[in-house]
Structure formats: C-alpha cells, structure tokens
Amino acid sequence: VDQASGEKLITELRRVVGDNHVLSESELRARYERDWTGRFVGQCQAVVRPANTDEVAQVVSILNNLGVAAVAQGGNTGLVGGGVPRGGEVVVTLERLTEIASLDKRSRQVTVGAGATLQSLQSHLQGSGLAFGVDHGARSAATIGGMVATNAGGIHALRYGTMRFAVAGLEAVFSDGTVMSRMSGLVKDNAGYDLPQMIVGSEGTLALVTKARLRLVKDLPERATALFAVDDTQSAVELLMLLRDEVPSLEAAEVFYKDGLELVSSYLGMHKPFAGDHPAYVLVECAASYDPTEELAQAADGANTRDVAVAVDAVRRNELWSYRESHTEAINAQGIPHKLDVSVAVSAMPEFEAQVRELIAEAAPQALCILFGHLGDGNYHVNILGLEPDDETVDRRVCELVAYCEGSISAEHGIGIAKRDLLSLTRTEQEIEAMRKIKAALDPNNILNPGVIF
Amino acid sequence: VDQASGEKLITELRRVVGDNHVLSESELRARYERDWTGRFVGQCQAVVRPANTDEVAQVVSILNNLGVAAVAQGGNTGLVGGGVPRGGEVVVTLERLTEIASLDKRSRQVTVGAGATLQSLQSHLQGSGLAFGVDHGARSAATIGGMVATNAGGIHALRYGTMRFAVAGLEAVFSDGTVMSRMSGLVKDNAGYDLPQMIVGSEGTLALVTKARLRLVKDLPERATALFAVDDTQSAVELLMLLRDEVPSLEAAEVFYKDGLELVSSYLGMHKPFAGDHPAYVLVECAASYDPTEELAQAADGANTRDVAVAVDAVRRNELWSYRESHTEAINAQGIPHKLDVSVAVSAMPEFEAQVRELIAEAAPQALCILFGHLGDGNYHVNILGLEPDDETVDRRVCELVAYCEGSISAEHGIGIAKRDLLSLTRTEQEIEAMRKIKAALDPNNILNPGVIF
Q1: Residues in chain B where the model's pLDDT stays below 50
Q2: pTM, two decimal places
C-alpha cells in the first residue's frame, strides 16, 4: 500500500468513526491481527471500530470505493482464520455493536447487536423465562454476529438446530454499503429469495452482519447432567439412540475418550470422574420444566454402560461439563494443534473413529490425536498435536476419509482460509462455481473477506 | 415459436424421456396449463415428464441450449401462478419422481422424490414411529418438490417451522443441467454457502428440485382437537399466548370467523359446531406421547372463551378440522376469489384484522371478505369475492396495509406472477437488486421460470 493512499484511507475512516476508533499503530492492532490459537496471523492497514450500523455502512462504502478489503471480526474465537487479516486489509470489528433490545416475550424473540457476546445474551435473558437455543464453549467471547456469519452449531444442535434455525431476522451491510434490514421476525415470509439465510454461514464474504433478530426457546430450569463411561464409540452411539427415544428432555450428548480425559484432568488439576479408567465417555445434559432425573435414570438402567455419575446441583454439573469443555484449552496448552472439525452420520461414527486413529498412527506415528465432540450431531473435533505447523498432509488425509464417509470437512467452524484447499473434497466443481458466482454477483470488487472460502 | 425449432425441441425431448412423456397436443397439455383456481392460464410448447434426476438434467440442458424457458410443476396446487406457463415455455412436471426411500430411523430422516405427494409421504411413515412436521390442507396433491420450492408453511409451523427447517439435504438441477446432490443429511455442514437453503423458497427460478432429504419428527399418537368460540381476534391472540405457555403439546392454532363458518357449513351441509353463532373461532390441535386432553382442558379453564368443543376420536376431530380446512373449497365454489396470503406479528393481528375489513368495506362495498389462517404464525389468508378478476387495486391496498404493519405480502404462497408487482412493498430496491443478481449469476439465460418473482 502506498503511503499517500493509506493516509487518505485512515483520514476518511476517522471522519466516520472518530479518531479513537481507527487503530493504525501496530501495538493497538496486534490483538486483532492474530487468532487466539496463534495459528493465523496477518498484518492489516488499520482496525476500525464502528459504533452502529450506519457507521458500518459508511466504512464499507469507503473501503469499496477505494478497493480495500474488509475483514469482519467478532469475538475472534474462530478456528479457521476467517476473522483475522491475511495482509493489507482493514479489520472491521463489530465489538461496539453490543446492544440487546426488544425482548418480546409474546413472539419469543430478541434483537441482538452483532458484537454482543453469547454470554451477555444469556445473562440478559436470565429470569425472563426464555433462553437462547444455541450454546457452545466459547460463550464468553464469541459474538452473535460471528455466530450468524459462521452458522455456529455447538452443544444443543441436536435439540434446537444450528444458528440458522434461530435467525428470525437479520440486518447486514452489503459490499456497496447498502443496509439490508429484515428485522420483523415473521414466522412466515416467502417474498423472494431468503437473503438472510444466504448470509448465515457465509463467513463475512457476502455481507457484514450488524444485528440479528433471534428466536428464543422456553427456559427449562430443571436440569440433570450425567457422565457415562462406555466401552467404545459403538456403545456411545447406542446410548444416544436410546436416550433420544426415551428421554424427551435430552439437550446435549457429547463424547470424549480416555486420552482426552487424562489431559484435561491433569491440566485442570482435577480428580478423574470415576475410580477407574474407561475407553470412552458420554456427557449428557437434560433440561425440562419437570425434574428430568427420573426419565434419565430409567433410560440409563436399560443402557449398556460401565459406570455413570449424575449431577443435579450447579457446582457438580459444571464440574462434569468441565471435563468436556476444557478439552480445547488443555490441548492448546500442549502446543499448537492441527484442528479439524468434521461430521459424519451418527451411525458412521464408530467406523470413522477407528479409521481416523489408524490413519494418523500410520501417517504420523509421533503425533498425539485427541478426539472429542458432539455425539448427537456426528460432529468430531479432531485435534492433532506434534505435527509441523504448516504441513497439511495429515489434515488432507483425514478430510479425504471424511469425504469417503460422506461427511463434512467442516461441521461448524466454517472454511475460512484453513480449509479452502479442502473444499473440493465434499463440494463439486459446479457447486463451488455456483458459490463463486453468487460471491461475484454480490461483491463484484471482492472486498468482503477475500481469500476466505475460495 | 417457429415450427421447425418447435419440432426440433420436441424430437430432442422425446429422445430423452420417450415419446409418451412429451405431451404436445393441446388436450393433453391442458391440465398442466391452468392452475386449479382457474385464475392463471397459459399455453406451453409441451409438457415433459422425466422419470428421474438424470432425465430432468438432460431436459434442462436441452432447454438451456435452445434458450427455451422451463416451468417446473409439482402438484399444481400453487396459488400465485408460479407453476403454470405464461406462454411458450416447456412445463417440466416432476410428477413421476415419486420414490420414497431410505427411511432411516436412527437419523430420523427420509429421502423423498420431488413428485411424491405430502399424503403419500404421510402414508409411507405410518407405523414407523416417525412423522413429517410440515402439514397443510392441500396434502393429497401438493408435492414435496413444490413444497421445497415454495418453502411451504402450513398448520404446524408454530411447532416445527416451515419446510426450510425440514430440509436436511437436497438434490436439484441447475440451469445448465448440472446436478447438485447434497443428500447425506448431516446436522452440521458448514462447507461454503448453503446452496440448498438458497434454493428452498426460490419458486423454480434457481434450480429444479428433484429430491429432498427430510428431517422427521417423533410421531405423537395421542391427540386432542378443540374448537374455541371467542369474542374477537384479541381474545384469540390471548388464548394462543396462554396455550403456548401452558400446553407443551400444542401443534396447531388456526383462526376463522363467523362469516367463513357460515359459508363452510352450508357448503358442506354440516351443522354448525355450536348452538349459537360467535364472532371468531380458534381451532387447536394438541399432540403428545401422553394424553394431552388434561393439559388442554386445564388451560382452557383459565381462558376467556365463549364456548368450546373438544374431540379425541378421529371422526369428530376430522369434523372439527373440516370447518377450517374447507374454507378454500367453500370460497372457490362461490367464484374466483382474489387471494392474499399475508402475515404480521401475532400481536398485530387484531389491528390488522380490523383495518383490513374497514379497507375492503370502503374500497369495494360489494365485495365479500373472508379471513382465516394460521393464528400461531400471524398468517392470514385474505379471500375477497366479488372483485373484477384483473383489477388489482384492492389487493395492492391490502398489501400496503401489510407493509405498514411490518408484515409480509406473501407468508407462505410465494410471489409467483401474482404478487410480483407488490414485492417492492416489503423489499427494498437493493434487496430486489441482490436477488436479481443471484438469479442472473445462476441462470444467465433466464430459462428457469422467467417472470416469476421478478
């Protein structure tokens, strides 16, 4: 970037958002230029922090006119490099759009700014009798805008679906700076193409999400958490099927294994949940308006499990959850892992698990492979420690296995820049071409997160 | 169309689907050229009946190469003229793609051909313990492909959402004849733009749907139906809110009025449901794995209603439903109505109802306005009898009122050709431009249902 045009850009952006909200010095930019795992780092021209939708629109319009690329950033909790710069872009952080408003108990909807964190939404809803159906471990930092842009999934998808199903309305800024505002939250609205649904999951490449109208669910105050020890993945799947049929209060079903539990317990300095070790673990959450313990206990009686721990009080429930939710942190503490986020049909999980372990043991005998994930969605997080940071050979082979199992190479994290070269494993040339055409149609100057997805 | 090129087209199509499945004679084409209300009629060059996806792809490819437009047709139950020709197109009927396969109880999904009717899917699922969440009155003729293409809503949307939420996978043919097959039915699959979701609701303008992988729900065998007589729409809305909070088994909540009931009872030759007349009626369906009568009765006790009839046996339940579901037939028997399918926020229904009646009484004092619809979704079907068939003045004024109430001018029927000129009432110029760009990107020769939506 030549200096004169760079200065012109900064001046124009400052005119819109104010001097303090255009960060051009490197130490101020730093935290926006690097993802939290440390795997993706890039330098941007500036970080701009608009205060509202109108400022976002003006910023995007300036960037579009000057042909400067925009990287939208939410809570920077992404895992595929889709929210940090690659080099030379302007980072548009939505972090100041934190307003949560218009909680409507009659329609069971709420309007949330793109920059509000999931946790702040959860706090806002406390005591209202309503709750938000999508939840995941990064709740304290992940923002609603980022969750919309990546169609976040998380731990309750088996009951409430992914982010896509929670979006009743959307406000977003297109590449030319025009604002689409579809916020009335109608249950039925078939007037032309559903642009909001097109934007959900498009990873900042079609529009910048500024606000979402979200569907809420009934808050279910009675909860029970159970940790089951089981023989293997096949037993885990059978347990899931049983619970799905017989436990209407089932809200989450997660899976992890002996090696992951070992790592987490030692990282957290916690006792392991059972006296002995077991090959695999299923963590189950039930929620209802009645006490779900009985239906859970009854179903558990009929299940082929090795051991079980049930918790109803919050402290003990959190403890059981921490075995599962601390996996990512505990793994990151060991080094920078290669992270793959894949899904297969639930019934294909046992075979996939066996084959992926075999593949990694063969391709990288020195590597440590930790598997965990969302049993209810067939969603495995494959974490591999001990690989060269830039050697993608093993990643590709794992994704080829996924494709062979008719699965997805990105279940919930998106494609970003990390999985770009793998997209063709599960999408045909014609599908990718159709996506490219949509991208070119809506962002002809290719300024919205260029290099992401394609 | 000149004769030589017309003959060439017929020959090429016959080579793909066989002589018997290209209908070029006018008496054979007739039933495909006219919608069932008789409002939309147009002449096509031919009707082609491919037997499978491969034949659909070849047909579309031929049409694209020759620049001949294709009108996809399912059960021809549409109400906005989106499935019948305007003049000179080829109708591609999906009626032979009726296969229902791969019912997977573990994933709770089934694969359904575009031409299978909703009723045939319902029959197929009988006894399986699973059911399909979307249902509507046209079930005997409406096809799954058509329901996908129009994002059908219907009577259970308040519990299970619209068609969009039931689509776990899609197979479709793009304008150049390439097939997109995304049928693995993964719960989480964030690899690039969600093309299936873009196609849902696009009314045959972006691709021809050939197959869908559908999410199923648990079949709930215990049912209760109640018909409430209430004072007015405000009381109906309050009743809905009460039921939504206190009756977890609530599956449908419909509304109709005194004049509609009068018409239906006389059309069916049935007694009216109560001894006296009442201003408004709410029809409620409950479904659960337990007997829902008690929770319904308890909630009804606390409601401000004028009368109530409850039914649990199938015969009596069907009778109560027929008061609601025969509205369309009973109205059509009076003449060709102007039909508007609109939605507003549920809380805005009372004001909308009052204003729309006032508007029609003032604008067309000779007209008869029958309102009914899906209370749970804020979805009114506004039927106006006694207007000139081609005079759209009143339709436009009703839709202007909808726009003023921040509603949708097409809740579930789509835009078709009937509502094309009204689209700009609730979509901005920029939104429509974005839709046009997507259309042009995916169908550059404009052969897929041209004239529909735009």
Answers
A1: none
A2: 0.96
